Known about the structure:
Largest sheet: none
Number of strands: 0
Helix content: over 70%
Shape: elongated
Radius of gyration: 20 Å
Number of helices: 8
Number of domains: 2
Strand content: under 5%
Order of helices and strands: HHHHHHHH
Structural class: mainly alpha
Amino acid sequence: xxxxxxxxxxxxxxxxxxxxxxxxxxxxxxxxxxxxxxxxxxxxxxxxxxxxxxxxxxxxxxxxxxxxxxxxxxxxxxxxxxxxxxxxxxxxxxxxxxxxxxxxxxxxxxxxxxxxxxxxxxxxxxxxxxxxxxxxxxxxx
Length: 141
């Protein structure tokens, strides 16, 4: 009988964690994406995509093509990893435009993208603004 309250508590904890994590998920690094996919999709990749190279989206295309045969865990992981990587790439490409005003205000005269990024990361007011979120989403913090 003691296991039932533990199961309920565990389920409640998982539900709360999923709510908290959906509020603002951080983007995933490319290395972490590969590791996560290998962990959650490794057996599906071996079974349905044997011999394919990682580059060029071939594994993703193979898993999507075989979606009906792929495990639900792999399908969910693939969707989450793909969305996170897209968000990271979008943040990296929009950094200059999004942070243009903050760079002029807090880092005027700083030359070079690396130095500018360092300056913006150190500027506390930037961290509270859209530019700070783009820096985080881009994986530079």
